[in-house]
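Sharing in case it's useful to others searching the archive later.

Someone asked me privately for the predicted structure of DegT/DnrJ/EryC1/StrS family aminotransferase, so I'm posting the question and my answer publicly. Question first, with the sequence:
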Amino acid sequence: MKKLQMVDLQSQYERIQPEIDKAVIDVIRSAAFINGPQVKQFQTSLEKYLDVKHVIPCANGTDALQIAMMGLGLEQGDEVITVDFTFAATVEVIALLKLTPVLIDVEKDTFNLDIDALKKAITPKTKAIVPVHLFGLCANMEAIMEVAKAHNLYVIEDTAQGIGADFTFSDGTKKKVGTIGDVGTTSFFPSKNLGCYGDGGAIFTNNDDLAHVLRGIVNHGMYQRYYHDVVGVNSRLDSLQAAILDIKLPHLETYNKKRREAARYYNQGFKNNPNILTPTTKKCGDICDTCDCHVFHQYTLQITNGKRDALHQHLNELQIPNAIYYPVALHKQKAYEDERYKESDFTVTNELVKNVISLPMHTELEKEQQDYIIKTIVDFVGN
Ligand SMILES: *Cc1c(COP(=O)(O)O)cnc(C)c1O
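And my answer, the predicted structure tokens:
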């Protein structure tokens, strides 16, 4: 059996090695490391793939969130609602910009923003909502957009884990996540579904004026060289990363399909186990190869009989890669504690941090590897 890994980036690279190697050498030979033609090329490719008017490449997914919030003109004291169960970058940039983060609970079955909790959290100071398409599953964008419209709020979609997922509206239309709200952000961190070989990120919007503002902010607030109209940052996607991404982008649909197939195989293996909750999609209640609303950035189980920590240790001893995303609710992190929060408002997150465990999930997983992982877990947890 091939060595188990949480993410297998070497094998993925080997499949596209000649193209990647050539593109990388071309950039080095051209010496156009910053703002080379590859950046514009990738920007155009991604605009086409996502069917969005503007892609603004930047240095990483955290910057993308920060720049999006700067571009919307949010001001000190404005409240920004996001989820208690996500990677900290989302809340970090809200705090960094001196906006007021308001964390809310998520849904147990989807790990995504809870609409009732969202409605409850809105105050006259609320200016924006940041849904996160956690683990690759679309948040309920139709409901979120309705709430946002009713209260005149911006929606910033954190698509770092969800790139390529399709959200289907009740009238049947489909849109790529990240292109539904006012602005979407993503990360090209190597292990993300569309990963480069270093850091990278991007912002998406259909709003021409906002796109213009964002393009200035990523580049020191300059629209004309050495004329600084607004306070900006230095956040660039470099030419090497753009060249690599432009080669990987055409494979993204296949990559996401492979992840879905692997998720379906796991789900089958854990089926009907009373101690294990497998991930589901809202659309069909199960995972099928056609569930394009989930791109499985992570495959995350809930262990419901209190054995999660013991399982984590058992898998570690057997050197089966696994991870706890996330072990601490954000409202309990030292940096983000706030006396306004009540534990009774976070019952789901408080339970998830105790029960979740993520398994190896990538484009190169083999059935033999999955069989071994499934058997080890079922033998340990019981069925
Ligand atoms: C990875 C990630 C980010 C940050 O992306 P970086 O490129 O690492 O800065 C933000 N939000 C979520 C949900 C993520 O998973």
